[in-house]
Amino acid sequence: MDGHAISAPAQAILAPQRSRPGLSEYFRASLFLGVVGFGGGLSVLANIHSLVVNRRRWLTEREFTNTVTVSQMLPGGAAANALAYIGLRFGGLNGAVLGYVGFVLPGWIAVMALAFLYVHYGTSPNAETLLGGFNAAVVGIIGAITLKMAKSAVARLWQMGLAAAALLFSVVGDAAPGEIALLSIGVGLAIDLGTKRARLFAIERRRVPRPAVKEPPVVLPEEGATLATEKENEKEKEKESEKEKEKPPAEVRIATWTVVAVMLGLVIHETGLDRELLRIGLSFFRTGLGAYGGGFAIVPHLKQVVARQGWLTDRQFADAVAIGKLTPGPVLLLATFIGYLQHGWLGAVVATIGIFSAPFALVAFAGTWLDRLRSRRPVRAALRGLTPAVLGLMAAAMLSLGDTLNGQGEIAIAVAVALTLSRFEINPAVMLAVGGLARFGFKFAGL
After folding, report:
1. What is the DSSP string of 188-219?
2. Of the chain's two ends, which shows fewer C-beta atoms within 10 Å, N or C?
3. How far from 404 is each of 133, 309, 417, 431, CA to CA, in Å?
4. For the segment 366-382, what is each residue's pLDDT rounded down to a tens digit?
């Protein structure tokens, strides 16, 4: 017997123990990640990796890498998508809902509290100074993320041109993020797959041509059909139709939630808010459907929508983005703030559901399908086209919010934050606090 051999029981002891969480346990874990979810998608994904791979051992390294890949293919926040996908893996649709809601809920509560304070106390000079520092720090954060993406994710000449085109279409052409994303995916497929096809064609031309052998076509019956005669098939079809006619009609059952939804709709209609709430819900639903690259990528388009509807001023919109970044969870929670400023808590709920419903639905219904196709060349080609588009949208967001900076002090804060985060790994939430304090310092200095 070999001295180095290990018995099967010993191997089982040495192998890492895999566990499967219950729905309540997974919901509590998602709530915890939502509470500590400061700093944006990459830092939150690191927290998720630490929890589900290292501490709880719910996923392997490979499974988590696959989860991150799928979450980045879909619109919405990468961290929220990842938790929904992990919940889908463990508990089906209920697990996906609990994972998504658990992560978003703490940030939603924080945004609602800050929106209440903003409405009642946000016009004071001190609050305006603090928010001005936050806005400047957000511009710097977006600039740092854009620089890092440009260095690591965009290496080819056509990708650089695609990023510039996305920036131009977003700033000048008033194009929606979803339109830019779809166009960029198409360009990525055409160029990446076209280049491969051209190389294969060149290789084939160098080879000696072989005479093609034509084979007669093979006609097969339909899947599941038998090779019976036509008369026998017709008789079977007649019998099946007679059986269908003899079946009693199914009972019609109305779910309780359907009655509640109808009653709630009637109450909203009587108050006269249904038209405006419907406009808010549809506007944020479209925005969430095109939110590739996270919340910052949709800032230019959402700013144009808000200005066109006359909901907020440019400064109020910049405050909404700053509050969305200041609170834990996805930056898309800025929709909650905008909805609250329009129609109180009801507008906040409608805006939140509107902007998160499309990304969640795509994760729930397309996540498993994308997981099987993530290694295919067309999917990788689509991602090569989507990445520079997100880069261009991020640059457009930086320019859009940069227009709201007030004075040399805020410009200096934005530049300092961008340079600092480009060089050092610091939590962006810390830089937001530093930006607010620095703005007070510049105020006393007269800048």
Report:
1. HHHHHHHHHHHHHHHHHHHSPP----------
2. N
3. 12, 19, 17, 19
4. 776 766 666 677 777 87
What are residue 404's phi and psi, to 5 degrees? -90, -5
Is residue 189 within 8 Å of residue 385, measured between CB atoms? yes
**Cα separation, 336 vs 320, whole angstroms:** 9
Q: How far is CA 138 from the centre of its chain?
A: 19
Angle, helix 334-373 to helix 377-402, in steps of 10 degrees: 160
Burial 393-418 (b: 16+ CB within 10 A, else e): bbbbbbbbbbebbeeebbbbbbebbb
SS3 18: coil
pLDDT in tens, 336-365: 999 999 888 999 999 999 999 999 999 888
What predicted TM-score, i.e. pTM, was given to this entire model?
Answer: 0.69
Block mean pLDDT (10 aa), the chain, length 447: 45 53 93 82 79 89 80 84 91 92 94 90 72 84 83 81 88 78 85 74 63 44 40 54 53 56 60 76 90 80 87 88 85 92 92 94 80 69 81 85 83 90 80 86 76
For the chain, count helices (H), then strands (E): 17, 0
pLDDT by residue (tens digit) across 167-226? 888 888 777 777 888 888 888 888 877 776 776 666 766 665 555 545 444 333 433 333
* Burial of 53 per CB tally in 10 Å (0-12, 13-18, 19+): middle
Summarize the chain as % helix, strand, coil (round to 5).
Answer: 75, 0, 25
For residue 431, give the nearest of 445, 410, 416 by alpha carbon. 416
Amino acid at 319: D
Residue bearing tokens 């085109």 = 165
Joined together, the tokens standing for residue 330 give 């996805």
Residue keyed to tokens 């859009």 = 400
